[in-house]
């Protein structure tokens, strides 16, 4: 689980300062304020860590098939108010709760631009258990390897360039001798933490009338939910202890949201094609013939039960095309799945209904205030600003930002004023 994030000169952010990430973290705010950039920073590292080119410093994307996001160029990532500094930084802490040899650690990497225009690591810092390892860029692309607070580098040269932003080179590992294994384990733990990220964007695929199945289970649901149906088919059709686990979980929440009673996988004759049947009010309809909201929330529900235990699920606008009651139920989904499956949720949302239900869940002690973090993001000229919402044990927000979710009380007052004016004028 990611426990802290900090960005400096990254896209809309001059400096986020330290952002505490909890089992359930919600990002709220206006459009184009910088919320998505917080999620994108970790996606950038994930697609770099799994790049086939181990010498890459930062994979800004461009491969529509394999990359999660296309960041453009170095200039597109660098905060526009920081042109003199010409560097940006991504930093996070993690705690994997005993998954692997490294329990917790720290990653920090700053990036600059070479004369040829490519992105280059300036300083990579990895920490765990009081130990610190750094690869610092020197002249002509050479790197110095520094351990803890030692004054002299353990090694210097061009062959000590870090790989994929998160790992020291093989030569650096060798030069570190007995410390080399620790650095290697730490880099592996960071990579695994990034690989456990499941990302679902705001634009999801429309439903088809039927689907083929190749009798395998997909690796991920995909950023547009393209493999969510494959995950449902695998859950229903592959025999084993977890058969129908995902299907049953999805059906439970569709029912709780009031949009369907259950979901059924139905084979078309003897073919290898299947259709998804939605049952509601005594009728059975093909997924294509029901409201778009069901197909849009399906990937959210599938990811919640399909993601491996210990994953971090990042969602943008999970509430899209859902009515208010269903939006509210998403808060309960996140709370219950996070607790039962040790899943971390990082949710960017515009839904007041989702947020209000989260307040209620805290008040009911379904989730502790310390296990949830709420942030409001706003734009101040060229830079984004982050407001940490202070929520007490009764779900009450002590520091409401101006214009937060509009002015419901003001709207009610205006309606009452207009009613009295019209009564006075005798028009009603």
Automatic annotation (TrEMBL):
Pfam family, one: AAA_21
Domain ATPase AAA-type core positions: 24-354
Source organism of the structure: Azospirillum melinis
Occurrences of domain DUF3696 (ranges): 369-415
Superkingdom, natural source: Bacteria
Protein name: DUF3696 domain-containing protein
Transmembrane segments: none
């Amino acid at each position: 689980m990611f426990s802290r994030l900090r960005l400096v000169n990254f896209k809309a952010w001059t400096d986020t300062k330290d952002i505490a990430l909890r089992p359930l973290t919600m990002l709220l705010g206006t459009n184009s304020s910088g919320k998505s950039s917080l999620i994108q920073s970790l996606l950038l590292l994930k697609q770099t860590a799994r790049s086939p080119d181990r010498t890459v410093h930062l994979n800004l994307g461009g491969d529509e098939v394999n990359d999660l996001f296309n960041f453009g160029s170095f200039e597109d990532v660098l905060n526009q108010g920081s042109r003199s500094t010409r560097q940006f930084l991504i930093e996070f802490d993690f705690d994997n709760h005993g998954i692997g040899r490294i329990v917790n650690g720290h990653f920090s990497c700053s990036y600059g631009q070479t004369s040829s225009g490519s992105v280059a690591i300036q300083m990579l810092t990895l920490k765990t258990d009081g130990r610190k390892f750094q690869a610092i860029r020197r002249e002509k692309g050479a790197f110095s390897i520094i351990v803890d607070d030692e004054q002299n580098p353990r090694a210097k040269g061009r062959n000590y360039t870090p790989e994929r932003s998160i790992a020291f080179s093989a030569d650096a590992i060798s030069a570190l001798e007995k410390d080399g294994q620790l650095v290697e384990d730490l880099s592996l733990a960071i990579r695994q933490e990034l690989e456990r990220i499941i990302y679902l964007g705001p634009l999801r695929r429309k439903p088809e009338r039927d689907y083929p199945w190749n009798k395998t289970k997909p690796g991920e649901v995909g950023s547009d939910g393209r493999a969510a149906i494959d995950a449902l088919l695998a859950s229903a059709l592959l025999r084993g202890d977890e058969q129908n686990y995902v299907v049953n979980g999805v059906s439970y929440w569709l029912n709780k949201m009031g949009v369907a009673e259950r979901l059924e996988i139905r084979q078309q004759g003897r073919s290898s094609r299947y259709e998804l049947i939605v049952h509601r009010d005594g009728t059975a309809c093909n997924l294509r013939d029901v409201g778009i909201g069901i197909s849009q929330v399906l990937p959210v529900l599938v990811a919640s039960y399909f993601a491996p235990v210990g994953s971090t699920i990042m969602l943008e606008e999970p509430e899209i095309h859902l009515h208010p009651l269903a939006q509210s139920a998403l808060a309960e989904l996140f709370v219950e799945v996070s607790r039962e499956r040790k899943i971390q949720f990082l949710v960017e949302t515009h839904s007041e209904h989702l947020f209000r239900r989260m307040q209620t869940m805290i008040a009911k002690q379904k989730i502790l205030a310390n296990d949830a973090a709420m942030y409001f993001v706003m734009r101040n000229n060229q830079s984004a600003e982050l407001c940490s919402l202070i929520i007490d044990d009764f779900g009450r927000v002590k520091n409401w930002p101006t214009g937060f979710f509009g002015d419901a009380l003001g709207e009610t007052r205006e309606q009452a004023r207009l009613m009295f004016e019209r009564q006075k004028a005798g028009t009603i």
